[in-house]
């Protein structure tokens, strides 16, 4: 099933169940996808929709961090619920160990020698982990392995 169709079905299910939080999160995704389609002037593929959802997940994580620092537990809880719902629309997330193994393989494949070759490694690595792992974790692991 296409991700677009899945979003539509999940939205209908949330409406029937009167699940306002789920409905709100799904509408946010659909709205963001629609805005992106208008921007790029074509219908988004599943991969592009996954990128949109990944961006929304990244925004939620940053919001959670900022709200936690400000002591706004009510907003942290709301963002965490939305984050959990958004993660359902992403591919299965890779563990740190799995990402680490992919980083090592990408370093070997790209022939990287040090920190200045990080771009080479990322070019090889990103197609393999896009939407499946947090970008900051990937970047940190690459830096650690190249150091």
Automatic annotation (TrEMBL):
InterPro entries: Asn/Gln_tRNA_amidoTrase-B-like (IPR003789), GatB_Yqey_C_2 (IPR023168), YqeY/Aim41 (IPR019004), YqeY/Aim41_N (IPR042184). Keywords: Transferase. It holds the Pfam family YqeY. SUPFAM superfamilies: GatB/YqeY motif (SSF89095). GO terms for molecular function: carbon-nitrogen ligase activity, with glutamine as amido-N-donor; transferase activity. It comes from the Bacteria. PANTHER family: ALTERED INHERITANCE OF MITOCHONDRIA PROTEIN 41, MITOCHONDRIAL. This is Glutamyl-tRNA amidotransferase. It comes from Geobacter pickeringii.
């Amino acid at each position: 099933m296409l991700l677009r169709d899945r979003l539509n079905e999940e939205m209908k299910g949330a409406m029937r169940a009167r699940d306002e939080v789920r409905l709100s999160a799904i509408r946010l995704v659909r709205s963001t996808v629609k805005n992106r389609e208008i921007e790029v002037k074509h219908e988004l593929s599943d991969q592009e929709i996954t990128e949109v959802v990944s961006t929304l997940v990244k925004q939620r994580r940053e919001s959670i961090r900022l709200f936690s620092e400000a002591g706004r537990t009510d907003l942290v809880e709301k963002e965490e619920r939305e984050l959990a719902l958004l993660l359902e629309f992403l591919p299965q997330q890779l563990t740190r160990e799995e990402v680490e193994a992919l980083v090592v393989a990408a370093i070997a494949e790209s022939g990287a020698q040090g920190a200045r070759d990080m771009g080479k490694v990322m070019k090889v690595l990103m197609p393999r982990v896009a939407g499946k792992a947090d970008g900051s974790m990937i970047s940190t692991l690459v830096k650690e392995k190249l150091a």
